[in-house]
Write a structure and sequence with these properties.
- The chain is of the alpha/beta class and 669 residues long.
- Helices cover 27% and strands 17% of the residues.
- The protein folds into four domains: 6-144, Cobalt-precorrin-4 Transmethylase, domain 1, CATH 3.40.1010; 149-297, Tetrapyrrole methylase, C-terminal domain (Methyltransferase, Cobalt-precorrin-4 Transmethylase, Domain 2), CATH 3.30.950.10; 304-332 and 544-665, Rossmann fold, CATH 3.40.50.10090; 337-542, Rossmann fold (3-Layer(aba) Sandwich), CATH 3.40.50.10090.
- The strands form six sheets. Strands 4-3-2-5-1-6 form a six-stranded mixed sheet, sandwiched between helices. Strands 7-8-11-9-10 form a five-stranded mixed sheet, with helices on both faces.
- Helix 14 (417-425) runs parallel beside helix 16 (521-528).
- The longest helix has 13 residues, at 93-105.
- It is elongated, with a radius of gyration of 29 Å.
- The two termini are 48 Å apart.
Length: 669
Amino acid sequence: MTPGEVWLVGAGPGDPGLITLTGLEAVRQADVIVYDRLVSPRLLEHARDGAELIYVGKIPHTVIPRSGGRRKATGATRNLDASHAKAADTHDQAGINRVLVEKAREGKRVVRLKGGDPFVFGRGGEEAEALRDAGVTFQVVPGVTSAVAVPAYAGIPVTHRGVAATFAVVTGHEAEDVILSGESGLAGEEATSRRNLGRGDVSSVAWAKLATAVDTLVLLMGMKTLPEVIEKLIAGGRAAGTPAAVIRWGTTPNQRTVVGTLADIVRRVEEAGLEPPAITVVGEVVRLRETLRWFEDRPLFGKRVLITRTRRQASALARLLAEEGAIPVELPAIEIEPSFDEAAVGAALQTLTDGAYAWAVFTSANAVELWFDLMRKQGLDARAFGGVRVAAIGPATADALAERGIAADAVPEEYVAEGVVEALAGHSSVILSGHDALAGPSPVIPSGESGLARDKAAPRGNLGRGSARSSHEAETSLPARPVAEGDSPGREALEGTSGATTPLQPGDRVLVPRAESARPELVEGLRALGAEVDEVTLYRAAVPAEAPAEALSLLRDGGIDIVTFTSSSTVRNLAALLGDDFPVLLSGEGAPSSVILSGDKAGAEVATSPRRDLGGEASERARPLIACIGPITADTARELGLRVDVEAPEHTVPGLVRAISNHYSGGDQ
């Protein structure tokens, strides 16, 4: 991008994955991003640090102000959710044009991020005209239009051999006194000053001719005028029995689809309570939805899932949940706060550079990151580990090491502290062993049960609750670790039960950098093997000072279907955040309970809670499903009074998501 230039970028219809590569790169480079309500908040997370985010969407059913303020990007704006429009400033179209021109004249790289495609009922042409008149250069990045994508996500192709060879995209609203930007359905619906096409105004759309001119009609921005439009189509010769579908919030986990015919679609939409943004599809292709629907059939479709991981680590879990159809809701219950004694760290670094350590054991990706940051400040890098064997408690920790040039010599089969001890003692198999690690591509595994040191180890009796290993995730491909002079592959490989030499010898010195208040099993186990252990505290898993208001509101109002915990710390810290409300909100403790007999949550337990200090009247809500990444976390949840519904046999983030999906689809965990 060039300073002083504006890029009109189509963001796609809602699914953040549908933006083009060029559009996403523009978002990453922009100094200023001017965006609408229909733009996925996750796209804004790609904005560079310091980028100015200017919201110009419109609030439904309100008078649109003629001017509005601006705000700089902050941590809060990087994590906007679907309700961000309620508190945002707004602009009319002339105001939007002025902002684009002003920011470009300031020498900024400006992205105008618009839902769908800028030139499909998105008023991108008008903005381009304004920029040209002002002498501002611009480029256009087309987007995936909702006119095709939204029906596709509902299982409705706009054309199909033998069924429909032609289609037309039509606006349900035409030029209005105040019109809202965005192709997928906010335009005109939310303005209080409108021209009503069905009440005597002359329409530029020849509905009588269009009614039978094409096989498939796609109506954008027509919810308020749907009765009049349907009436005109029937009057123009379209059969009243023609199939029709109305799709709200298409391509997002909030998608809802109502199917009927021209004769009854208006009634069906009213009964379903559908509101904008929505599009309407008319034609025989709608019948194909019965066999082609896919998006809404995913196991977690439409379920709101609470993510309690750190904000930085939440993205991987959120992405995997969204792929299963869920609506991720982030409520970080942990903040990683560095906490270390400089003298102890300095002594350990000196011992490392002196080559006195035989092994270094890392129990979380956080520990890897913080330790290497401390090394970097002392001018050290991966070469300091040249003569040291390195163990990682799980694939995520091994991956964090690999990113810094270290191939783990050992990762135990069981991703817990006891697994590390047994592996180094030669009593169990390992799934990685230095240069003998299996070659070939394999997935990068986000941190799991071992992600926070406080939750590393499980009593050995818990290890039998399911294998922590899956065939495709257990053997992670990492860069080959060079063999130190004098070493042999047989000496370095840890094959445990195969009879290889035990690598940890009595008297070996072991470095263990990890979290404050970590469970003692790892250090005690290593010392029992005769090792001299230097345990260096690096950080604490602290309770955040505040939690996102929207996520708390959903939890308190019974709007969360599933609560996920990825470490014992997430359980304890969420309990600390919620206080006395923790057992009420997550288990219904202390409230009368019953069972829902019908509806979407049939069979779910219901608690009638007085909700002390939560505001509002007593109400009924379904107890959310509790899902834990492994036995340690599950035990902590039970200790705090929760009933654990899902315990992942594979203690990784992908394993947790699979276990939740299997719970709802009826598959094996």
